[in-house]
């Protein structure tokens, strides 16, 4: 459009351009379009089943898009693996596995290579530095499976970042963490890695409230479609109503943002409440405010 | 027990122990114990078939072990591995029953394949067994990091470009190879215990993966050496002692693991 946009495009770490995905004939993602610049901390927000994991898998080159394209650092996703770090959803590390935190981090450096890893001073220093960067040095020699959820997240983040990627993708890293651990992880990612080291971070979450204060931008997914912009630009009644295809209210309850739909049976919290992500519990997701 | 006719037994059993210790570590890590049970048990049917055709039973064994591993790998791309494994196992056992029903005389050779016959190893069998052993250990060494990474965090591994299905298939082929060469020595029913007991014990005793593999080999060696000596002294089948040794290893590992955990001091909070 304007020359300024073209200049931005060369800076873009991630460019998701009209990505659509259909699985078994069912549309999962519909023309999703957004870009991320260096050092941006971006939230991928949406309820479970909104297509967050599918979108991350497309960016990783693990899932083919039906239409559209993904470019990372200007290259197609499949040829840019070295530029992306990934922390998958629901990491479950078996406490019986004889693997220390430092082993897992070292595998982030060369786990895809063949042969027995040869110990070297340089590599050990690199691993120690990475563990220190996520405040994990004090449990470096413990079994990963015996660490707490928050500690395992730090180790997985170190594993993903040690190869110095320009883009870090995290799939629901805050789920199952207590509030304090979640805040620590958010601070680590936004301050240390996004702001200081200019790593672009795309973090998916079904509960957006803990992230809202630090997000540079938001990619809000609903029914496979995305609305993108700053929090003020996206978390608005007109934008989200058009995204959901029906009227929604955006409520600010004591600083907590709730996205609420009015249905025949009452009100349904679509986002902003942790329980909104569990469609299996209608008692929880409906606030019961009829009357 | 160190007489000339026993030398083959000691050498072969030691090779078998190294294989079981190395491959078994990943069998336990990847939760593939059922595969490690099904492949040798099913491969026994191949030996029965070979005996029926009048060819070397080792060939029948190898063919069935490899076919079984590949079959499990192929079927488990779309279905759960335990179901695929069970399906392959019953198919091979069914064939085994058929082959045995055609065999007129009772074959002691096949019986020994089930329970092991360490004294029956001839010196011209040592070279192929050693050759296959080197292939197995080298293959594990080459695939060490992708195997470890895909066992720990498969999605991260895939994102880094590790092809999970290829790693799994290669691993199953290694299990098949390891099986066909360990089977005539310790027997189909007991390879399993050698591949599970020592590695399971080793992983409870150390936190480092490479140290665990080393320890697993040491425990497997001790198990077979004790089993040969005990079998020689008592005239009881070696399979019994290998099985018992595997169980003792595992119990020992659990005890050491428990002791190690109880010694871990509470970590100081963030400084």
Written account of the structure:
The complex is a heterodimer of chains A (291) and B (271). Chain A contains nine helices and 13 strands. By secondary structure, chain A is an alpha/beta fold. In chain A, the strands form three sheets. Chain A has a six-stranded mixed sheet, with helices on both faces. In chain A, strands 2-1-4-5 form a four-stranded antiparallel sheet, covered by helices on one side. Chain B has 271 residues and is mainly alpha-helical. The model of chain B has no long low-confidence stretch (mean pLDDT 86). Chain A binds chain B through residues 60, 62, 81, 84, 86-89, 91, 93, 96-100, 103-104, 107-108, 110-117, 135, 138-139, 141-144, 156, 159-160, and chain B through 29, 141-146, 148-149, 151-153, 155-162, 202-204, 206-212, 267-268, 270-271.
Structural category of chain A: alpha/beta
Structural class, from helix and strand content of chain B?
mainly alpha
CATH superfamily heading of the largest domain in chain A: P-loop containing nucleotide triphosphate hydrolases
**Major protein interface:** A-B, 37 and 34 residues
Computed over alpha carbons, the radius of gyration of chain B is: 19 Å
Identify low-pLDDT runs of chain B: none
How many H/I helices of chain B?
11
Morphology of chain A: globular
The total strand number of chain A stands at: 13
Indicate the topology:
The complex is a heterodimer of chains A (291) and B (271).
Chain A: H1 3-11, E1 14-23, E2 26-36, E3 41-45, H2 52-60, E4 67-72, E5 75-76, E6 84-87, H3 101-110, H4 121-133, H5 149-161, E7 167-171, H6 179-196, E8 200-205, E9 217-222, E10 225-229, H7 231-234, H8 237-244, E11 248-253, E12 256-263, E13 266-271, H9 282-285
Parallel strand pairs in A: 3-8, 3-9, 6-7, 7-8
Antiparallel strand pairs in A: 1-2, 1-4, 4-5, 9-10, 11-12, 12-13
Helix pairs in contact in A: 3-5
Chain B: H1 4-29, H2 33-53, H3 57-75, H4 81-102, H5 108-115, H6 123-152, H7 154-159, H8 164-186, H9 188-205, H10 209-234, H11 238-263
Helix pairs in contact in B: 1-6, 1-8, 1-9, 1-10, 2-3, 2-4, 2-8, 2-9, 3-4, 3-8, 5-8, 6-8, 8-9, 9-10, 9-11, 10-11
């Amino acid at each position: 459009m304007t020359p300024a946009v073209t200049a931005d495009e060369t800076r873009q770490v991630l460019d998701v351009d009209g990505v659509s995905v259909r699985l078994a004939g069912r549309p999962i993602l519909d023309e999703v379009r957004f870009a991320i610049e260096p050092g941006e901390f971006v939230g991928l927000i949406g309820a479970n089943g909104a297509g967050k994991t599918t979108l991350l898998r497309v960016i990783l080159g693990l899932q083919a898009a039906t239409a559209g394209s993904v470019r990372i650092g200007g290259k197609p996703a499949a040829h840019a693996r070295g530029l992306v770090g990934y922390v998958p959803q629901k990491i479950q590390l078996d406490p019986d596995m004889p693997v220390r935190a430092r082993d897992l981090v070292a595998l982030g450096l060369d786990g895809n290579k063949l042969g027995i890893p040869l110990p070297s001073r340089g590599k050990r220093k690199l691993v120690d530095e990475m563990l220190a960067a996520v405040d994990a040095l004090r449990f470096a020699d413990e079994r990963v499976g015996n660490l707490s959820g928050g500690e395992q997240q730090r180790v997985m983040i170190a594993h993903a970042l040690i190869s110095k990627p320009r883009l870090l993708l995290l799939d629901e890293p805050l789920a199952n963490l207590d509030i304090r651990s979640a805040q620590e992880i958010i601070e680590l990612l936004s301050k240390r890695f996004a702001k200081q080291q200019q790593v672009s971070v795309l973090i998916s979450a079904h509960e957006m409230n803990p992230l809202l204060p630090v997000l540079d931008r938001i990619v809000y997914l609903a029914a496979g479609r995305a609305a993108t912009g700053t929090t003020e630009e996206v978390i608005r009644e007109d934008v989200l109503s058009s995204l959901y295809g029906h009227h929604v209210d955006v409520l600010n309850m004591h600083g907590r943002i709730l996205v609420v739909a009015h249905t025949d049976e009452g009100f349904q919290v679509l986002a902003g409440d942790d329980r909104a992500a569990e469609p299996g519990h209608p008692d929880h997701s409906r606030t019961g405010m009829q009357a | 027990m160190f007489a000339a006719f026993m030398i083959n037994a000691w050498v072969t059993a030691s090779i078998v122990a190294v294989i079981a210790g190395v491959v078994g570590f990943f069998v336990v890590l990847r939760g593939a114990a059922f595969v490690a049970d099904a492949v040798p048990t099913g491969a026994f049917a191949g030996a029965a078939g070979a005996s029926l055709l009048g060819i070397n039973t080792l060939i029948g064994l190898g063919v069935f072990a490899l076919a079984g591993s590949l079959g499990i790998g192929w079927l488990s791309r779309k279905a759960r591995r335990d179901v695929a494994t069970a399906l392959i196992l019953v198919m091979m056992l069914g064939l085994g029953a058929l082959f045995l029903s055609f065999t007129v005389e009772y074959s002691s050779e096949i019986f020994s394949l089930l329970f092991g016959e360490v004294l029956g190893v001839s010196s011209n069998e040592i070279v192929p067994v050693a050759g296959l052993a080197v292939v197995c250990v080298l293959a594990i060494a080459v695939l060490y990091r992708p195997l470890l990474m895909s066992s720990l965090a498969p999605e991260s591994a895939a994102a880094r470009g590790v092809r999970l299905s290829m790693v799994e298939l290669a691993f199953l082929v290694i299990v098949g190879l390891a099986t066909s060469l360990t089977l005539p020595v310790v027997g189909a029913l007991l390879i399993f215990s050698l591949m599970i007991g020592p590695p399971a014990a080793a992983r409870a005793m150390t936190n480092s993966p490479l140290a665990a593999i080393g320890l697993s080999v040491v425990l497997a060696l001790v198990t077979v050496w004790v089993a040969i000596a005990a079998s020689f002294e008592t005239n009881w089948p070696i399979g019994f002692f290998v099985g018992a040794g595997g169980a003792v290893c595992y119990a020992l590992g659990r005890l050491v693991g428990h002791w190690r955990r109880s010694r871990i001091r509470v970590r100081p909070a963030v400084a």
